[in-house]
Amino acid sequence: MDVSVPWFDLRERLGRTLFARVAGPEGPDNRARIHGTPGPRWFGPDSAIRAVHGDASMFVGGLRALLLQSLHPLAMAAVAAHSGFRGDPWGRLHRTSTFLAVTTYGTADDAQQAVDGVRAVHERVRGVTPSGAAYHASDPHLLGWVHVAEVDSFLIAHQRYGAHPLDPAGYDAYVADTARVAAALGVTDPPRDRAELAERLASYRPELYATREAREAARFLLRHPPLPRIARAPYAILAANAVSTLPRWACESLGLPYPPAVERTVVRMAGHALVGTIRWALGSPARTRDEEGRISRSA
């Protein structure tokens, strides 16, 4: 008896559900435009940024990035006041995932247009924290923190959970690729290899601590996500793996438990299984690497 059809159907249903949750109702149209429009790209098909951003480990890295970014009080104040992460968390996820997809895979013109749109939004985001400190989302220093926290998170998640982890030179190339997007967004002299990334992260350490808003955001993201009951157990595994990759000081600042080594090992095993399942579900038999390569080479 042929059992391939039911498994294929299950994969398709799960893949569509995951993609819709991350990319939103406009996801299929955006995907067709991003991958199907001919023209020059910022990054070629064999680039390190495509290897990292195209892997299911991004599910862990994205959540880790949000937790780590919240530890800068000015960044957290801007998010709390202007992003709508509570009222419209999925909308924020859709916009972020679309931006990453366009800048990683889209044409150079579309990537620049996406960057220009984000810069226009950042220019309008300004205010004062409860403690009286002024913030402006277009501040290059603040943009720099958001960038390095994100790149560090995606890199670490890919090292641990990626289907094909890169070698050291490959991860240096990834940091260099992301620097192109960061510079376009207004980051001054973004790091271009892992050593520079580590130095830049360390330079922000004296500015970082968990405000009340950061702790509330962590509770919302980890304990009260707006998800149907059936999705809560897998999400709990995802959240546990995101937390387990944070440095100890970050967990302590956010009031999150830092699990012992044995527990971290169990969490990582569950994380590998979950990320593997997500990767299996999101694999698209209708679109091959050769097809994407032809589109990029036609640029």
Task: Describe the 3D structure.
The protein is mainly alpha-helical and 299 residues long. The protein has one domain (41-297). It has helices spanning 4-23, 27-36, 48-53, 58-69, 73-82, 89-105, 108-124, 140-161, 168-185, 194-204, 212-223, 229-244, 248-254, 261-282, 289-297; strands at residues 126-128, 134-136. Strands 1-2 form a two-stranded antiparallel ribbon. Strand 1 and strand 2 form a beta hairpin. Helix 1 packs across helix 14, helix 2 (27-36) runs parallel beside helix 6 (89-105) and helix 12 crosses helix 14. The chain is globular, with a radius of gyration of 19 Å.
TL;DR?
This protein is mainly alpha-helical. 70% of the residues lie in helices and 2% in strands.
Characteristic terms for this protein:
single chain, 299 residues, mainly alpha, two-stranded antiparallel sheet, 15 helices, oxidoreductase activity, MPAB/Lcp_cat_dom
β-strand number: 2
- What's the order of the H and E elements? HHHHHHHEEHHHHHHHH
Return the domain count: 1
What is Rg? 19 Å
What does the overall shape look like?
A: globular
Poorly predicted sequence stretches spanning 5 or more consecutive residues:
284-299
Tell me the β content. under 5%
Number of helices: 15
Global structural class? mainly alpha
What share of the residues lie within helices?
Answer: 55-70%
Largest sheet: 2 strands, antiparallel
| Strand neighbour order, sheet with most strands | 1-2
User: Gap between N and C termini, in Å?
Assistant: 46 Å
Kindly report the average pLDDT value. Answer: 89
